[in-house]
Records
---
Amino acid sequence: MFRIMKVPENALLPTIKYSRGISMTLQEPERPSIKTSVPGPKSQLLFTELNSIQQAQSVQLFGDYDKCAGNYFVDVDGNEFLDVFTQISSVPIGYNHPALLGAFEDKHALKSLINRPALLVFPAADWPSKLKRVLLAFAPRCMNNVYTMMCGACSLENAYKCAFFWYRTKQRGGQVEFSPEETVSCMLNQPPGSPDLAIMSFWGCFHGRAFGALSTTRSKPIHKIDCPAFGWPVAPFPRYKYPLHENEAYNCQEDERCLAQVVCIIEERQKCCRPVAGIVVEPIQSEGGDNEASPAFFQCLQQICKQMGVAFIVDEVQTGCGPTGKMWAHEHFNLPSPPDLVTFSKKMLTGGFFTSSEFKPAQGYRIFNTWSGDPGKLILLDQVLRVIEQEQLLSNVQKTGKVLKDGLHELEKEFSNAIMRVRGRGTFLAFCSPSATVRDKINNSLKKNGVLSGICGEKSIRLRPALIFQEKHAHIYLDILRKTLKEL
């Protein structure tokens, strides 16, 4: 069996240092305020209108985004909610932050937004410096290449392509030219131009809804059903027993069981000439239920990738940009070397992925689409990163996360029949209920009591507050959650 490799505790990644800052204050409600039924009459009317235009069953509320502020979401009926879900983890510094409201007052910034260049054909003169200053300055260590994209799914799609290009170049012995047979067969979707390569993912993962990303998504059937998919392999992801400190032996065996399956799948596919070119993994499986794995699991998974010549792809679309208390969640794992590719989106406002020059395609147009991102998003992200540094928001996430997690553990003791398995890092937290029915009742009751939270997996509730979520907000949330649990 594959044994867990222990990395010394002092093998820490270097701390990221920030050198930019902007100080802002936000005006937000003191507490949630619910004035109507939830959803209210205006939301219900708008839902009827929207649902006549498109399938809108996923819509919960309609927002009045002129009135949203900081950690509070205001709907069209005037209800003010403490938002710990933040547009599925996508609002980094709260609603209507002054730094973002003023981002396009500068005429050059405004023109960068409205003219929206095809960035891989006609970029502006300041585009290289923006990539260096805004993105590469905050990249995972040793990653000197970055590609911007429009969303998380296309970030994964193109990261997978980079992994395939890298793998095929290795198979050719480093040659980058293509044979006539390859150029003809790829147009017929046949080998050798369209090789039978795979990206391995894990049960419970979510990597997006575009077709390549969807083939690696394994969280809910509704995401995939009726869609053709690649026959790519899937490995088990650890399912731990909680509390973690009381179940170390079991959880270590669970790591080893899953890692052994990873090795077995790679070996079997190599034997039948259908090799795994890359493994993609989330630092915390989000849509699949906020499932965690230990630092030792990720260290060992990276070791397997290196030993077997497979790209190690870390999907930080939801965990990136600070919600776990570090800029990148994989920094918690003390990896001996960086991942090969790291994808991002959501709180980063733009999509994209970081990598090293080793994964840079030799030819142009291999990683390409019309826009390949949006310079306007980098202008906003620049302001976000300034605020993170000036307001020491990573430190704030660590402090607030401790208050939240400690409070959830107390409620876990008080209401052990309703919540359990409290887990997570920073403010990126979750807990389980005994069933989906109980979970949904809690989540819906929280909304009626003035809190927006999210669900994930089979029976979990997740917290995804903004980085400006403070201890006072944590206490409001915990008070309302206690009230909600008492009302069950």
---
Amino acid sequence: MELRQLRYFVRVVELGSMGRAARELGLVPSALSQQISRLEGELATRLLQRTATGVIPTDAGLAFWRQAQMALRHADNAAVAAREARLSGAVSVGFAPSTASLLARPFVAAMQERYPDVRLHLVESLSGHLAGMLNARLLDLAVLFQTESGRHWSVMPLLDEKLFVVARPGVVAGRQPLEPMNVTEAARLPLAMPSKNHGLRILVDAAFDRAGVDPGITLEIDGLTTLMDIVLAHPIATIQPGVAVGRLHDALCLYPLDAPYLHRRNVVTSVSDDELSPPALAARVVLADLMRSLVREGHWPGATIFES
């Protein structure tokens, strides 16, 4: 039984509706229903009864709801006590450039608010380089886009990012911003992309191969800031997640790529839990909560929360 299941159940009972609770919790109704079913299966009893207007707790559900509220209060009090203990120490966290543009500032602010005595070391680099730093124990945790088998890592998939064709106005003729585009259409555009050893390029190349098209990649740039500046200044497009646009969001147009299999998974990856220091464990929780909040509040373009 997990604390999140208790929180889900309590909110469903409070609202009397699975759909309303799912919206407030940032979940799809089927995922919320699945979590409640797992809880009922573990307890071997029915907790909720469906009615014409929503759901109500059964007698067992009502009894469980009272105890769940108490358990959640105790858990929240424990979290407050832990924070008030003034956790101290150092933690190193790695971000890819596109992720750092969105996450770094609010993450630092959240850590300073909750754990002001924890010293942060932030590293911005390519996902593959960050993975190497994790293996060398030069980082405690990082947001990666792919993981390798056989590593002694703790892995937490958190969200999936849709990819977009990005260009300045007028480069993509006959199409309105945010109008979807398929992979074959994207291949006909002049493209600036990272080089072939870049994780995003590998993902996009696989999509072009799957569609049987030869893309018009005319420029390779390994550096997000330079790449986006070139796209802004020249009649050329690129393919990136929405967060890559960053400070240029008002000057560039985004066209979602219509390919269900083409997405970038963001995974909070750390050294194994038994190696993580208390500050690193706390930072991982803050980072995961922040990422989910940014998606739920609509601040992470094209991202959806990963549901296991």
